[in-house]
Write a structure and sequence with these properties.
Strand 7 (166-172), helix 7 and strand 8 form a beta-alpha-beta unit. Helix content is 24%, strand content 29%. Mean pLDDT is 93; it is low at 1-27. It folds into four domains: 2-160, Chitobiase/beta-hexosaminidase domain 2-like (Chitobiase, domain 2, 2-Layer Sandwich); 166-378 and 451-509, TIM Barrel (Alpha-Beta Barrel), CATH 3.20.20.80; 521-585; 596-749, Galactose-binding domain-like (Jelly Rolls, Sandwich), CATH 2.60.120. It is built from 20 helices and 33 strands. The chain starts with 7 loop residues before the first helix and ends with a strand. By secondary structure, the chain is an alpha/beta fold. An eight-stranded parallel β-barrel has the order 7-8-11-12-13-14-15-16, surrounded by six helices. A six-stranded mixed β-sheet has the order 1-6-4-5-3-2. It has a five-stranded antiparallel β-sheet with strand order 20-19-22-23-25, with no helix packed on it. Bound molecules: acetamide (ACM). Residues 328-329, 378, 395 line the site of acetamide (ACM).
Length: 750
């Protein structure tokens, strides 16, 4: 089933006069999308079509909900010309051999002949998925809004069902607000790709987006923050808006799961109702990004009355089985210093603040369960004991999900390693998300059943508008949609990539500002007697140009070239057009390049840079701490030893540390460099202490340089660098008490 998409514009360009244009359009073979997600089974006839006419009949079998979605969609683009041709569409919820064997309520079958189209869903959800398949089977021209006398789809037979029951996307409408129409557009796009859940993140430190009649200040105060220009920024949906969103989703059988964050990420609510906090306030709606220490007071009964009132109104609007209550990133600093919270711990026999958080979540879960709903929480709800029926959404890697599944709790996987759409393409590109497996290898097969699916998470701190949103969500969300639906273990990225290309004209026509699939180039290094740069494009159809140091001209990249100190810029091109921004990388040539590297504590997998030789590879980290060249150490010291292979004279050992309090990254308390010729007896080259931790939210890089005072330097084969972590995020910081990070890159030995 290989079809080529022929760009309409390219063919039209061939024509000059209007009559010629008409002739050209007449002979155009319609172009089609390749189905995404790929169906389980499909057989298709060559050159035979089922036609939709304005007088096509749609029959809904008895007992089948009359969902006219497909009929309305197609009829809207049919000219009402009298048509003597006959065709019929039979729609039913029913049984077939295939549907009987499928466990999914979303399973469906499509059987199209020249005269009839049969659509059978296991349930009305299955029908809704089938409608989207048919939508994708219509020509590109249909999606581009053309009206015709008739529309065709290929004669075929499809049997299809999803691998995972939960296939979602989180949309954060709090950090930046996206209006009702955008939300509906996204629901439509999720439906088009057979995702079935919009995880609607409605409350945050920076904004509360839903009306609660009992607490009007949640809109008057909590929906508004002061932005960086001093203007008030914000907004909220009315209850009518939310009902409209839910109804729009229901028509497409998409579930909207609201998320009401507790006990943390609640500063906006506390700004309006400070008596629910530990201190009584005053508190402002947060106007910066990060994790904040103001959380609901766990010792205060009014907190639970408030939250139950809120959740009651939430449940009135949202019929979803699940309600998401957040539970992530709740610093315990306030509770540790709050008499009421401490009293609650004593009364309930709770041994620490993590158990207090579990108490909090369990109380909320009990309330939701009594109202016939189930709770989802981020993986922090495992700390201090998991509440009885909770579903866990694993985000800090797969570990939380594994632990929850082994405890026989349902799990939604959305690890930062694969599913965070706010992350740059450097860390998560389309191929990476397409390689996502929600079921970790190390999870015993008996627990696989507890992994109900996955989500991609679109946090919007740095996504101020729809254009940005589109560029981050697309095309990566489409990759995840296929993984979660089709879950082909032997899937090949290149095949998916080629199929995806057929979708871009349609997305473009719909006004979706889709982004790139990947960053254009990888900069690889070869260490011989020289250091050479080897550029590699991430996709077959890209070409690369580069510029080194102060050179003013771009050169076509042909083969590896050797370098000294300086900055490299690389620009990728796809079909002669710029493919993204230039990639830049600074290099330093020094004595320890590609030296042996050993460590006492391993860096975090989240900030692994180029793994083992990252600190001696010549690449120097930039002011973007996610640029992929920094090593991050979380809550531990950094103690590493470099082996130069033979004794050498060294004078200076220099390294960079990153400082950014907002992301819990602090300069080390102390840095010590020692050297040795035999790795047995060590001498201190130098030592330096840092003053007070810097709590300002400014990103900076601090260079630490320690030198021998001997002119010729000292003889060393081994160099040991110790950077002592401040341990915990200091008091006065919003996340006080959480483990602090050390970020280091390139240990430069001269
Ligand atoms: C999260 O990203 N804090 C769930």
């Amino acid at each position: 089933m290989v079809k080529l998409w022929i760009p309409l514009t390219a063919l039209l360009l061939l024509g000059c006069s209007s009559s010629e244009k008409e002739v050209v359009t007449e002979i155009i073979e319609d172009s089609y999308l390749e189905l995404i997600p790929a169906p389980l089974e499909m057989t298709q006839s060559e050159d035979e079509y089922f036609w939709f006419y304005s007088n096509t009949t749609y029959t809904y079998s008895q007992g089948t909900e009359e969902n006219t979605y497909l009929e309305d969609l197609i009829n809207y683009q049919l000219d009402i010309a009298s048509n003597s041709n006959v065709s019929e569409v039979n729609i039913k919820v029913g049984e077939t051999d295939f549907l009987n064997t499928s466990e999914s309520e979303e399973a469906y079958e499509i059987n199209a002949t020249v005269h009839s189209l049969e659509i059978i869903g296991k349930t009305d959800k299955g029908l809704a998925r089938a409608f989207q398949t048919i939508r994708q089977l219509l020509p590109v021209a249909f999606h581009e809004g053309e009206k015709r006398n008739k529309w065709k789809m290929p004669v075929l037979s499809i049997k299809d069902a999803p691998a995972f029951e939960h296939r979602g996307m989180l949309l954060d409408v709090c950090r930046h607000f996206f209006d009702k129409e955008i939300v509906k557009e996204y629901i439509d796009l999720l439906a088009f790709y057979k995702m079935n859940t919009l995880h609607f993140h409605l409350t945050e430190d920076q904004g509360w987006r839903m009306p609660i009649d009992k607490y009007p200040l949640l809109n008057e105060v909590s929906s508004w923050r002061e932005d960086s220009t001093g203007e008030m920024y914000g907004g909220f949906y009315t209850k009518e808006d939310l009902k409209e969103i839910v109804a729009y989703a229901e028509e497409r059988k998409i579930t909207v799961i609201p998320e009401i964050e507790l006990p943390g990420h609640s500063q906006a609510a506390l700004a309006a109702y400070p008596h629910l906090s530990c201190t009584g306030g005053p508190i402002e709606v947060a106007n910066d990004w990060g994790v904040f220490k103001e959380i609901y007071c766990a010792g205060n009964d009014s907190t639970f009355i408030f939250l139950e009132d809120v959740l009651t109104e939430v449940m009135e609007i949202f019929p979803s089985k699940y309600i998401h209550i957040g539970g992530d990133e709740a610093p315990k600093y306030r509770w540790e210093n709050c008499p009421k919270s401490q009293q609650r711990m004593k009364e309930e026999g709770l041994k620490d603040e993590h158990e207090l958080q579990s108490y909090f979540i369990e109380r909320i879960e009990k309330f939701l369960n009594e109202n016939g709903r189930e709770l989802i929480g981020w993986d922090e709800i495992l700390e201090g004991g998991l509440s009885p029926n909770a579903t866990v959404q694993s985000w800090r890697g797969f570990e939380g999900g594994i632990e929850a599944a082994e405890a026989e709790h349902r799990v939604i996987m959305s690890p930062t390693s694969h599913c965070y759409l706010d992350y740059s393409l450097k860390s998560i590109d389309l191929e990476k998300i397409y390689s996502f497996d929600p079921i970790p290898e190390e999870l015993d097969e008996v627990y696989h059943q507890y992994i109900i699916g996955g989500e991609c998470n679109m946090w919007t701190e740095h996504v101020p508008d729809k254009e940005n949103l589109d560029s981050k969500v697309f095309p990566r969300m489409i990759g995840l949609a296929e993984v979660l639906w089709t879950y082909d273990k032997s899937r090949e990225f290149d095949v998916f990539y080629n199929r995806l290309q057929t979708h871009y004209p349609v997305l473009k026509f719909w006004g979706i500002n889709y982004g790139l699939e990947t960053i254009g180039a990888n900069i690889n290094l070869e260490f011989d007697h020289e250091v050479s740069i080897l550029l590699e494009s991430n996709l077959d159809n890209l070409s690369l140009k580069y510029k080194w140091g102060n050179e003013s001209d771009w050169k076509d990249y042909q083969e590896p070239f050797s370098i000294n100190d300086g900055k490299l810029m690389v620009q990728a091109y796809k079909n002669e057009e710029l493919y993204g921004e230039p990639i830049t990388q600074s290099f330093v040539k020094h004595k320890a390049l590609n030296a042996g590297f050993d460590y006492k504590y391993k860096w975090s997998d989240w900030y692994a840079g180029y793994e083992t030789n990252n600190l001696v590879d010549g690449r120097v980290g930039s002011l973007d701490f996610r640029d992929g060249t920094w090593h991050g150490y979380w809550g531990t010291d950094m103690i590493s030893t470099i082996d130069l292979g033979q004794p050498e004279y060294i004078i200076t050992v220099q390294m960079n540390f990153y400082q950014y309090a907002n992301s819990w990254i602090f300069l080390p308390e102390k840095v010590r460099v020692e050297y040795s010729v035999d790795s047995l007896s060590w001498t201190v080259l130098g030592e330096i202490e840092n003053e007070e931790p810097d709590l300002s939210n400014v990103k900076s890089i601090k260079e630490v340089s320690l030198s021998s005072d001997r002119k010729l330097g000292v003889q060393a084969r081994y160099i040991r660098v110790t950077a002592e972590n401040i341990g915990k995020v200091p008091n006065g910081h919003e996340a006080a008490g959480s483990p602090a990070w050390i970020f280091i890159d390139e240990i430069i030995v001269r």
